[in-house]
Automatic annotation (TrEMBL):
Mitochondrion keyword on record: yes
Family membership noted in the UniProt record: Belongs to the CIA30 family.
Record's protein name: NADH:ubiquinone oxidoreductase intermediate-associated protein 30 domain-containing protein
Matches recorded under PANTHER family: COMPLEX I INTERMEDIATE-ASSOCIATED PROTEIN 30, COMPLEX I INTERMEDIATE-ASSOCIATED PROTEIN 30, MITOCHONDRIAL
Species assigned in the record: Monosiga brevicollis
GO cellular component: mitochondrion
Compartments (UniProt record): Mitochondrion
GO BP of this protein: mitochondrial electron transport, NADH to ubiquinone; mitochondrial respiratory chain complex I assembly
Chain segments carrying region Disordered: 209-241
Domain called NADH:ubiquinone oxidoreductase intermediate-associated protein: residue spans: 24-194
């Protein structure tokens, strides 16, 4: 019996959290100054609307209305995206252009969603401005908060929204921005509440995991969205808000 208990606790220790740092504490109103919002309306003349506001209960609320309507006369084949993204370190006049996540290997998101699938965008140093590392963030809907952990190894390299055949691992030392992208081609209102974005470390890598209980293992689609053509632009190019 003693040996069984020792094995149990040893196995549990292998997956233990060995480091944790908060990257963005969105319970604080001033943290919103470090973020920007963009939609297809801003870049392509689309019809999606979005905004972010600080809620009195201590979280950021990203909300709006997604529209897939293509503007008349546009050459776009599809439309409809909304993005909440951290501003680049350079725009905030910080010496290093990269987020400091130390030696962590997992990103953690405290969120409360509407049941829609969001995409986490990580902008890294790359040869191509349109490159993003992406992974899905699935929300349950309803009143309960989720703490979702996604290992950096689970993020897939995409170019202009297309998953690349040749994948390179994301360097934890080269992350410039973190964003929440909604581009599920479903018209209608959306709402995503965010408390904190953190970096953490697990000795044993996990698959996408909702630490409240659900495993999250669905792969990215072949074409999650071409929104990255716009979402990787800097605030200077866009005149960000």
């Amino acid at each position: 019996m003693l040996k069984l208990l020792q094995r149990f606790f040893k196995a549990d220790a292998l997956t233990a959290n060995t480091g944790h740092r908060v990257l963005f504490d969105l319970t604080l109103p001033e943290t919103l100054k470090k973020f920007m919002v963009a939609t297809d309306k801003d870049f392509f003349g689309g019809f999606s609307e979005a905004q972010v506001e600080h809620h009195p209960d201590g979280f950021a609320r990203f909300k709006g209305h997604l529209s897939t309507t293509i503007p008349e006369g546009s050459k776009m084949e599809r439309s409809g995206f909304a993005l909440l993204r951290s501003r680049s370190q350079q725009m905030r006049r910080i010496d290093s252009p990269y987020l400091d996540i130390g030696d962590t290997n997992t990103l953690e998101f405290e969120v409360r969603g509407d049941g829609r699938p969001y995409i986490i965008n990580l902008q890294s140093s790359s040869l191509h401005d349109e490159d993003l590392y992406q992974a899905f963030l699935y929300t349950r809907g309803g009143p309960h908060w989720q703490t979702v952990q996604i290992p950096l190894a689970d993020f897939l390299l995409t170019h202009m929204g297309y998953v690349q055949n040749e994948q390179t691992l994301l360097s934890h030392e080269r992350i410039r921005t973190i964003g929440f992208l909604l581009a599920d081609q479903t018209d209608g209102p959306f709402q995503l509440d965010v408390r904190r974005i953190s970096a953490t470390t697990h000795r044993k890598q996990i698959t996408r995991l909702d630490v409240n209980g659900a495993q999250m293992t669905s792969p990215l689609p072949k074409d999650p969205s071409r929104a990255s053509e716009a979402t990787n632009q800097t605030e200077e190019e866009k005149g960000g808000r």
